[in-house]
Specification:
With 437 residues, the chain is an alpha+beta fold. It has helices spanning 3-51, 84-94, 150-158, 188-192, 197-207, 212-217, 224-234, 280-283, 303-309, 321-330, and strands spanning 64-69, 98-100, 109-112, 118-120, 123-126, 129-131, 134-137, 142-145, 163-166, 182-187, 240-244, 253-257, 263-266, 272-276, 294-298, 311-316, 333-336, 347-351, 357-360, 364-365, 372-387, 390-394, 399-403, 411-421, 424-431, 434-436. The longest helix is centred in the N-terminal third of the chain and has 49 residues, at 3-51. The chain starts with a helix and ends with a strand. The structure holds zinc ion. Zinc ion binds at residues 71, 73, 102, 130, 246.
Length: 437
Amino acid sequence: MKLKQILRLVKIVLLTICGLIAIVLLISFTPALWHRWVTYPRLEKQVEAFQKLRKEPISLTKLNTYRGVLHVHSFWSHDSKGTLAEIIPAAKHCGIDFIFLTDHPRGNIDTIPRGYKGYYDGVLVEPGSEKQGFDTWPLDSTIIDWKVDKDTVAKNITSKGGIIFYAHTEEPHNWANPFYQGMEIYNFHTDTKDEQLFPVILNFLVNGDKFRPWALREMFDEQTTILARWDSLNKYRKIVGFSAVDTHENQNFRAKFLKDGRLQWFGPNAKIIDTMEVKFWNKWLLQKPDTSGYVFKLMVDTYREGFNYITNYVYADALSVNSLANHLKKGHLYTAFKSLGDAKGFMYYAVNQKDSLIGMLGDSVKLADIKTLKAVSPYPGQFRLIHDGKIVNQTSKEGYNFTWSEPVQKGAYRIEIHIKLDGKIVPWLYSNPIYIY
Ligand SMILES: [Zn+2]
């Protein structure tokens, strides 16, 4: 073979490889680019139009509604570096009134309070722990001994007035334990577990700056198994349902220049994943350094978007730890995907024959006293009434009000509101049940 022929062959092989790489890149990036130019702008317009439909419902209780985050991590956890400088502005931006932290303890003995406690720029922060599948807030100067068995931990904390809720309810728990008071019915981290990492990274690379709320929303799946579990438990006793954002602001990819000119890459939990010379092929990824010196940021679980993604709404007398804890245990709480619409103003309640309110979400009401169940919402939606896990009513049209027209029976009745998003009906709000006995 002549040299000329060999060169020609090499050229063809190289061009084919380049062509194949280009095709693979194009195929890989197409969904993310499609989202950027088509889907997400369309969704944004739809949500904007939806939010214009807001009508303030008349208040039916003297209690106030407080927006809160109930599972979140700060620097006190080994896997977060979040400080008040990041947490409080994010909370203010999202209209969050209180944050109950759930930091991972650093050993088998956990002292509470630690980390942050008190009011910071008007945002109430209460420290707690996440360990052994618990979200716990002892609400007191407490030393938790995590070495004793889990059920004893729950007993020790709740018998002194603290809160024990089950975290990560996709995992096994002792559901028959009589001491825990509630469970996560939605956890963002749980929801992401079935996602494939590569498409998620590509989507955040393309849409992470401009459309991060939608890139997060892309991972949403209705947690039907967890909701079914919650319903089955509520048949026997009150188990408060709440949502968890589980934000660490640390599940990110970042890069920073070292003094010697090399680039250092940080992966999730701020772990160094690589240190390298900058090459022509990765230079295009880099931007001007931010205030912390990062020249590349692929942020996934930020406080700012996390706090807005799903939010708990608690009816309470005052923005104090005592009042909030008291009403949390009562189940005076509903949860909603706030980035779709702020659910403040929602109420689910029971009325007597005189149409007076005799109980609200989380309450127990005597069958003999109740006439029917009602709900009001600041946004129009499809109401679903769920009795002991079965949908017993589903409104055909989207509305602001719901009244159950059939006879009420014993059991736990909860309300969901679903809204139309991009032609699909998606869950927007979950309320705690009213228990009829
Ligand atoms: Zn967590």
